[in-house]
Design brief:
- This protein is mainly α.
- The protein has a single domain, classed as Glycerol uptake facilitator protein.
- It contains 11 helices and no strands.
- Helix 5 packs across helix 6.
- InterPro entries: AQP11/12_channel, Aquaporin-like, Aquaporin_11/12, Aquaporin_12.
- This is Aquaporin.
Length: 304
Amino acid sequence: MAGLNVSFAFFVSIVAICEVVRQISKRFIPLGVYRCLAEELASSLQLCTCCLELRMLVELGPWGGGFGPDVTLTLLFLLFLVHGFSFGGASGNPMVSLQEFLIMESSFMATTVKILAQFAGMEAGRIFTKLLWSWELTDLHLIQNLMAFDCSSSIQTSLSQGIYVEGGCSFFFHLVALKFQHNHVLYRVPVVALLVTVLAYTAGLSTGAFYNPALATAVTFHCSGNTLQEYIQVYWLGPLTGMLIALLLFQGNIPRLFQKNLLYNQRSKYKTPKVKAVSVPAAVVKQIGESSQEEQQRARPRAE
């Protein structure tokens, strides 16, 4: 369990360091630059380093550390709780940034900067994690450091099935994220963390369940077993397709591309109240008419 304790200390340290970077950046740089660049950069680095360390525990833990999937899945859930509460407005996922652009919540320039920052943060996280493994603080790190130079692809299924798996994970992730986007963070973050854990449990053995192009690029693109074109099809085009289908199903349209709603009827927000016809007895109508005639006759002498 010593290796697990060191990994836990690593998780706490990297989250603390990234949070310090976020707080310092927020004070000294403009808010727009912070949200598009610094926040995404720090959050992507945090996401990548934690993912790589957790992936090592998943692969080596059962026979090298004496713990099974129950421990790693619990850690995954806790980590995404921490990510959800600490990321702020960042996502660390290019598909989320692209989705914000398509629903017109972000400009083209801001989206481009966010995506570049995410890829840069992921690559920085990969380099930092490899540096940590080179210190060989535990036996697990020693083994992982030896294996890092000859890693294997995360795609453990056929190419077409891999695309479906990543696209399906992306679809469910974005659909749930859209559904709970306006809920309070105390409700939204646990739901997303639970969904990520379930997707990792069901699809992790097939493709790694990344549904995040930047994370997949940093973690598995350099590994042998598949070509660059195959990696792009599974880890870029698959999540992109899933995100577009989820957005179209949730809203009925893609505002940046077309405004017409293809799935749902547009109803007015304000409904016109229905007036119920009331029948008036004939005697009452006759009495009202006689009263008005009497008032007109009284008014004539005064006018003369």
